[in-house]
């Protein structure tokens, strides 16, 4: 478990944005990523008949589509017990090794942090 108060202000911000996306859109997950310039991209789960993306995958895709060249951090708010390997891979594709991914519960408390290898 990671103490949310130990996160810096920018990391707390993406956790808050991810939590808001989940609540606002009524989706299973909300996510936010921060790019190399400090811009944030916020998304929820996409569950269409022909397209399924996790919230993290959607946020990464939004960053790429907006011209981001790398990521500094990512956060996902979910009831899941862990961070999905596909989400770590998506963050790693743009962020590279060492990019932190925070997992918070619906209450916003960070339960885990994974670092892309």
Account of the protein in words:
The protein is an alpha+beta fold and 117 residues long. The chain has a single domain, classed as Cytidine Deaminase, domain 2, CATH 3.40.140.10. The protein contains three helices and seven strands, in the order H-E-E-E-E-H-E-H-E-E. The mean pLDDT is 95.
Any chance you could write out the topology, listing elements then pairs?
Blueprint: H1 9-25, E1 30-35, E2 40-44, E3 46-47, E4 52-53, H2 55-65, E5 71-77, H3 85-95, E6 100-104, E7 110-115
Parallel strand pairs: 5-6
Antiparallel strand pairs: 1-2, 1-5, 3-4, 6-7
Helix pairs in contact: 2-3
Brief summary of the model shown:
With 117 residues, the chain is of the alpha+beta class. The chain has 3 helices and 7 strands.
Q: Quick one: overall form?
A: globular
Low-confidence stretches: none
Distance between the termini: 19 Å
The string of secondary-structure elements, in order, is HEEEEHEHEE
Q: Structural class, from helix and strand content?
A: alpha+beta
CATH superfamily: Cytidine Deaminase, domain 2
Annotation keywords:
117 residues; two-stranded antiparallel ribbon; alpha+beta; Cytidine Deaminase, domain 2
